[in-house]
Structures are given as structure tokens and as C-alpha cells.
Design brief:
Elements: E1 13-14, H1 25-36, E2 41-45, H2 56-62, E3 67-74, E4 80-86, H3 93-100, E5 105-107, H4 110-117, E6 137-142, H5 143-146, E7 150-153, E8 160-165, H6 166-177, E9 181-184
Parallel strand pairs: 4-6, 6-9
Antiparallel strand pairs: 1-2, 2-8, 3-4, 3-5, 7-8
Amino acid sequence: MEEERIFVDPVLYEGSPADAADRPENERACYAFLDGLGISYLRAEHAPAMTIAACEEVDRVLGTKMCKNLFLTNRQQTDFYLLLMPGEKPFKTKDLSGQLGVARLSFASGEHMQRFLDITPGSVSVLGLANDKEKRVRLLIDADLMRDEYLGCHPCRNTASLKIAMRDVLEKFLPATGHDYTVVTL
């Protein structure tokens, strides 16, 4: 199987695109939300990046690693979780289930992802929490990721990637969305 590679513009951009009229609404709203909070970020444009492996060039250009974003649910599909963790770290459901006191976790559906985060599969990002008006999604952050100075994530679309200070995510973005976070150890 041939490894998926993506093209990344070698130029980093600061902030949102000068003309975002041709961008999807959820991406434009993401930039507007970050800009409204005074959060600075670097941006790289690229072909769709559906996996962590596809983001190697993005990592190089941004000078940070993209984090793995997993959208999970309990068996009853009544509780939803967004897990952020280092991209290279393997995920074992039982390790997280035990910490949360949940019998069984699985990946949530694309329909739930769209409903709560206004994001499609392959574009999952902490920035989607700005769209979770019902506060249905609980944010979980792996302890190893908390040590990073920057967070690499998509602006609700997987054709661009952002480098944002972790401090800005925790101290500005999350409070503005009304979400808190739980640190987990995987």
C-alpha cells in the first residue's frame, strides 16, 4: 500500500485567509471565532489530510505535530467525548474507559460529529467545540499533549492546518466556548 502524502504550501500564513469567500462556512466561522478572541495562529494550506500519517509534511511546515483527535461515545450514544492525544501514540479504548468509568467506548458516528461539532470525519478538531452549543461533548486531553507548547489542528476542515499556542486554547478558546477539559493518561 502506497503511503498517503499531501502537498503543503511551503509558505506559512499568519491568521485567516485574506479572502475566505470560497471557504466552507464552518471554516470561515472558525477563523472569525479565533480572530474575535485575539488568538494568533499560523496556517498552512494543503490537500485533504485524513490521517496523522498524511500530516507529516504539515508537521514539518508548521514546526509542530498535529494531534490525534478522536470523537468517541458510550454504548448508549448518550455521552460524547473529544479526545486529543499525541499523533504517534496508540489508542487503547480500555485505558480510557476505565478512567472515565464507562463500560465501553466506541467511535461516534459522522452524524453525531456533524450535529455537535459541525465537522465531518477526517476534520475532527478541538476547534469544533465552538459549534457545540448544547455542550454535549466532553473534552479529554492526554497528559503527554499538555506538555506541548503548541497544538496542531484543523480549522474544522482538513484542507488547512493551524499552529496555536496550547495556552491560548486552554485559557482563551475553551472558556469562550463554555467547555472545560479533563486530563487523562493513556
